[in-house]
Amino acid sequence: AYVSADGDLLDKVELDESLRLNSIRHIALGRDGLVAFGMQWQGDPAEGVPLMGLHRRGGPAVLDRMPIHEAVAMAGYVGSVAFDAARRQVAIRFRFILFHEI
pTM for the complete prediction? Predict the structure, then answer.
């Protein structure tokens, strides 16, 4: 949800019901309003569900479909998320840092 400083709801996005056990834990805001978010999966980590996504107000959330071995290695948790200075990559941290082109 995007909320103004006055508490007004500006936009709201919900993930598919199949991802209801995912919760957003970390966010980063890009200069152009693109939001990157990292999540924690409360289900079986071996399911390899998406743990990172991107969103721009007014549009749908775009989830990162990383290779299953990377998703499983993350054990259901993204520890932090950040944009690089050029805004061409998003870094996510779990046991080590992965960079994904955006």
Answer: 0.83
